[in-house]
């Protein structure tokens, strides 16, 4: 209760006097402790109903560990939401390089439009698709060779008795299967299951063997697909060319078998046609007023997703979802809270402006403001620090001293320019300051090396103080993130057309610190 935490700060000075209570209070106001989030497994179970979980393919060959983890988990959830809503179209906002988009299209056969504001990123995604498609046949050949080797090894290791039994196959069966053997370039012992026949083989046995042959062939093709997908795991769908089975000699097949093969062929062609262009990278800047139908000409009932949508884009994703009847569900994981625009931060009177925070009416009525420093803190990763991935104290110290130099020497307190990752490219503090001043377009000749080092020596003894301060910010980070996420959830709860909405922890926070998704489904009347 409030009394428990009343002694965290001094009543008069407002200074922190009890670090232990501060940490306990911060822990109390985290999402995991407040009990307002929905477990991922519980949501998946509700969406699946009686359907079994599908086995996915690995995603770690063309993505780093973090991205692989995110794409694997989120794509499974999105697929289950799409199935629950009975939709096949997905709009991926802020799609970037298209990792999530391509995996959704390939693994789950969903039609995905990936929208990103950067032409460079979109073109990069297209180029990546082109290169992967160029190497597709090589991967395909290698996978076929691997399957063939496995077949031969398996055949060579069979017991002698199996070979003796295979000799008992009647001539009719040999004729019936000869074309298949020729087309696939395999031996009899590779396509005929061992011990399937005896010396007294009957026509019933022969019929059963044809079924076994078909099953074996299907199994081989399935293994081939799995082998290739294991290599190409995140290959976008428009880079995938469906394997075309060789046309076999149908003269010796029954009419029923001919019809079955004809139907299978038509289905394969239809599948190839529908799957050949399932991922479409597009370039567009998305705002709350964006008309999706202007960007996507064949817009239909769909689900909108966003994996680490930056700043206001996460808020605008939710606004578009609530406003557009075609969008039946949303799954949004935001990031970059420091880039959010705030309605009450600068006390500007802009009632018509669309802000990133706050979204819900409850906080708007109270004029709630976080401020940039708090939002910067919300981006920190407590779980990573807890497992030993410490903050970059030295680079933070460099940045802090640089700011003092700029204010003292140049009188600059604000700038639209950024220092960026200068620290990693600098050999010393002097080198860091000079490179940073050039990036900020400030005349570095005003500051001699001796002056730069004087500032460094003046504040060096406060580095531990800076580290302690940043650790307090890390402890507080989840509380500020809770405020931002609950604001978005409350916004959805205020809408009349939402059937269900919730916060779901999707990712391992050590691998992916921004791990909570805002998820919502519209009412059935909206479907």
TrEMBL record:
Write down the SUPFAM superfamilies for this protein, in alphabetical order: S-adenosyl-L-methionine-dependent methyltransferases (SSF53335)
Domain Methyltransferase residue range list = 66-343
Pfam families attached to this UniProt entry: Methyltransf_32 (PF13679)
Superkingdom as given in the UniProt entry: Eukaryota
Matching Gene3D superfamilies:
Vaccinia Virus protein VP39
Q: Which InterPro entries match?
A: Methyltranfer_dom, METTL25, SAM-dependent_MTases_sf
Q: What is this protein called?
A: MET25 protein
Gene behind the chain? Mettl25
